[in-house]
Structures are given as structure tokens and as C-alpha cells.
Amino acid sequence: MPPKKNKESEGGKGKGKRPAKKNTADDGEPKSKKAKNADVESEESIEDGQDDGDIDYACASTSKKWNFKISSWNVNGIRACLKHGSTLAYMKNEDADVFCIQETKCPEKDIPKEIKLPGYHTYWAEGQTKGYSGVGLCSKVKPINVSYGIGISEHDNEGRVITAEFEDFYLVTAYIPNSGRGLKRLEYRQGWDKDFREYLKELDNKKPVILCGDLNVAHKEIDLANPKTNTKTAGFTKEERQDFTELLEEGFVDSFRHFYPNKTKQYSFWSYMRNARAKNVGWRLDYFVVSERLVPKLSDSLIRMRVKGSDHCPVVLLLAI
To answer: pLDDT tier at 54 (50, 70, 90 boundaries)?
Structure first.
């Protein structure tokens, strides 16, 4: 059954490609049962007082040319995030062709007008539970088609997925279910992972796919600060990690690890507890996963670790398309 269609709201006329240039159910993000001991080891710190002011938003670390940029950010409540003064500044400075937003926690009618950026077509999916989940997509280029959910009613009542079809690819932004404290939702999560994988495979049979968002899994030990103390924590169970491996085995690529297979201390989520962000005791939960045949078009995959406003930071994909 195809996902249901909703109306878009437009912030202005779409623009073409830029010139080439160099939780009720979720219970929050991953936390160890051993709260006193987990996530306390200090990794390489993120220097105090240094935010996004030193970021070169136009440059790819790889020095490859690019002409299309996608930003993905779990804002952990869009209204709360906007109260952080740097959020709109980040979006202006990043100037992405597409912004994908997760965990808006806001019905579409209450989305702040500031986030409906001029020149962007905007789309929002909301869950049935007030103040929970929700995703958004803002694009300069008007998509050919936009759909909501994955076509399975069991999964489509929490506002977790938007799919935008463009000329050369499908862009899917997703907020994947958290298995919850005590892993009480792990069985549901495994079912979700299987169904979502099949959904992505169906899209991939038609066009290449770019999946972005908070996927709520740290795939390898390198992807979190304290793997040894978190093996039974939501986001790092063997089941969730295996599900992610199976997705990659279906012909998809973790874009960040494609460019930086051995780079350590690279995270996109930090608990608000125990000064975790300042110590860089984090998790890499936010991804761009792409069809293998898109890899030649990738220019870089970046984590904006210094951008604040949420317990997550944005991740960015640069392409030459």
C-alpha cells in the first residue's frame, strides 16, 4: 500500500541547483542502565566557547566539488530549538538545498513561521500523540512527489518518515523508533527495521535512495564513546546493530564511514547529563545512508559537531549531481 499523500506548504518558489563549489513510547535517547558508571569517561573535549563560528560551510573536507547540499538535524523539539539563538543562524549559514528535520514535537499548524524559510517548499509529518516525534523537509527545489510514512498503518501513526522524489533520487528523512528504557520496545523496533528496509529496497528499485535522519543506532564500537558499558542500551544492542548491517548488505552505504572509515570521536548526539557534550562523550546516531550507485556522486559527509541548539547536531551531505 503506498504511503498517504498530504498537502505541502510553500515558503516561496523553488530554486535550481547552485553552481559547483569546493518521547511517550521512546523514553528519550540512549542511556545506560548503569547511569553512575556509563558515559563518564572523558573523550577529546569540544572546546568551551567554540561554536559554529569557525565552520567553513562552503568547503568539502575532501576538496571535491559539489553542487547540492542536504542538512539533517534532530532538533529535539523545533520550538525549543528555535529559542536557541544560533538555530536560524545555522540554517542561514548552511544554506542547504534541502533541510531535513527530525523530532519536531509539533503539529504542522503550530510550526513556527520563522522555520518556514523564504524560497523553500516545506512539508511536515506529525504523529497522533501531541508533543512527540514528527519530521519535516524544506527544499529549494520542489520535489516531483512527496509521501508520508511507509505504507504500513502500524508504523505510520507517529509521524516518522517523509519521502521526497527528485529527478535523480529519492530523499527519505526518518526518525527511527527508539527501543526505550529497558528495551521495552525492542521487538517493535526489530519489526520496524525489517519493514523499513523493505520500503527502502522498493524505492531503490526505481531510483537511487538517500536516507537521512536520526536512525537511533550506533553501528560500530567506533560510533560511541563507551561501547563496553552500553551493549544492553537502546541504540547499541546486537539486534539493532545487526539490522543496520543488514540494511547495508542490501546495497546501501554509510556515507560518513565511506569517507572516514577509521575516524574516531565523531558523534552527533550527547546526553544532557554529566556534561557529556563538553567532554565529547557521545553517540553517532544521525546518518546519511545512500544507494551504492550514488557513491560516485558523493563529495563529502560531515558532522557539524559545534552547532548547538539540541542534544543532537546537524549532519550534512555534499553531492555533485
So the answer is: low
